[in-house]
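Escalated from tier 1: adenosine-5'-triphosphate holo job.
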Amino acid sequence: MLELEGIDVFYGNIQALHGVSLSVRQGEIITLIGANGAGKSTTLMAISGIVPPRRGSIRFEGREITGMAPDGIVKLGISQVPEGRHIFPELSVAENLDMGAFLRRDTRGIASDRDFIYQLFPILAQRRNQPGGNLSGGEQQMLAIGRALMARPRLLLLDEPSMGLAPLVTRQIFEIMQTINKEHHTTIFLVEQNANLALRAAHRGYVLENGRVVMRERAAALLNNTAIQQAYLGI
Ligand code: ATP
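Tier 2 regenerated the structure:
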């Protein structure tokens, strides 16, 4: 579904990604794990067109998307839930969700997707008229995921969904992510600091170190790998 081949990304003169290659198959949950500053967010931002690579290629469903503008990439079916959520605090929950549908014109489809998101996250339905800024951290994460889903993505990019959340809320969000993957056939590319949680939820994983992919394996194999356990799982 998605293929990155040898991508290099720079911020000015600083090279953040060095020849990153990876692939995501339709229907899977892929996770990218790595320490702070390894380049995980940069990889997601390269895919969604926010920081275009200087070299290499990114293909989505067989089509070259390298260098395409972010809104064009959303239109093709890729939505990103950014790190830190970035919801609109002054807008209501419902208005925040509608922002995710800004490229769509099918009013009925939008309304039915909004209902689907309220079923997935009943708390958002209860708070639909409240300003987004009044929600708790976990609810804001749900809203950010709901907003991304309003674009009806086939590939959802999730950047650190557990950040700053209590374990119970994190678990809830991970369960919903798995429901979206299984029952709604949305492919998921998950970036997480919490490698333990991510590898338990994902089918396959990539390990990123200093902007380079150093390992690619089935998630279960990474969980049992002693080097991974020592470096990322605190075992
Ligand atoms: P974290 O978990 O801390 O978000 P990460 O693995 O997502 O880490 P990135 O945020 O992708 O890592 O950062 C990769 C490298 O690029 C780091 O060295 C970081 O300092 C650098 N970097 C990220 N954003 C910028 C920027 N806007 N300008 C300059 N350097 C940046």
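The chain has ten helices and ten strands.
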